[in-house]
Amino acid sequence: MTAQLIDGKSIAAKIREEIGTAVAAMQAQHDYVPGLATVLVGENPASATYVRMKQKACAEAGIRSIGHELPAGTGQTELEELVRALNADPQVNGILVQLPLPDHLDDEAVLNSIDLGKDVDGFHPVNIGRLAMKGRDPLFIPCTPYGVMALLEEVGVRLSGAEAVVVGRSNIVGLPVAMLLQKANATVTICHSRTRDLAAHTRPADVLIAAIGRAEMITGDMIKPGAVVIDVGVNQKEDPTAKRGYRLVGDVEFESAVEVAGAITPVPGGVGPMTIAMLLKNTLRAAELALA
Ligand code: GUN
User: Which pLDDT belongs to residue 18?
Assistant: First the structure.
């Protein structure tokens, strides 16, 4: 059996097009377009690439993006002052502080200083707390987990009562995606680097989310036949035949997994494009809330 490929690239393109249409309507009706402020501290090349991609996607959807690039040595007070200025700016609907921040900065304090109504990353502790609580909902859902849930919806998988296993417990993906799956009434297991027998946990999973950051760690023999597999990992693997000397692989070994799973996301072209689409969706929502 060969799994259905979940084409995140085309699903994300459809969402981005819908957002573009909604932004144009907002401009026509209110003479106002959503604005996203991006804050990049230091010179992490991967972070710089992600921020550039986010700004480009904003431009394509008609969303204004305002980039702030600060040197690696920026102090805590200076960064929080910038966030407060952005909180007060009516042209800014969303504030995205790209993570990770340099080690000397306290990311929790920075995220805490973002206005809840502008927290389009959904990383503010209050938003995360609401995500964790029964009967409460966050104002914004973190973008990558939101994208994962949109892909699951697109596949039409029934989450209620399903066994869902999340491999990885990061604040950005593993933890929030587990909470979202729980909200959708799945029975959720979170595995991580200290889990003793990973395969014993992954094999019963109807839905398997791989977000551990280890190249091709999940192999076909660890997957239940017919399971839906969402691969959040983006890892570089040496490949002398590739132009850059490496290629991108996920946390799942695609070649063996595709023979067992019912549906699977590729890397690249699976979850990655969805993160950006959901950021635009959250930014549009922030602008709608500001206009309401
Ligand atoms: N670093 C990795 N993913 C993300 C994300 O979705 N948002 C921010 N702000 N930083 C990240």
Answer: 98
130 φψ region: left (φ > 0), alpha (ψ -120 to 50), beta (else): alpha
pLDDT at 1 over 70: no
Q: How far is the CA of 142 from the centre of ligand 1 (A)?
A: 9
Rounded to whole angstroms, the Cα distance separating 236 from 224 reads 26
Look at residue 291 and give its three-state secondary structure: helix
Q: How many angstroms from the chain centroid is the CA of residue 59?
A: 19
Rounded (10°) angle between helices 271-291 and 45-61: 60
**pLDDT of 182 higher than 70:** yes
> Between the CA of residue 132 and those of 48, 137, 175, 179, 286, what are the distances in Å?
30, 9, 9, 6, 21
pTM, to two decimals: 0.97
Q: How far is the CA of 201 from the centre of ligand 1 (A)?
A: 28
Ordered by where they begin, the domains of the chain are: 31-115 (3.40.50.10860), 143-272 (3.40.50.720)
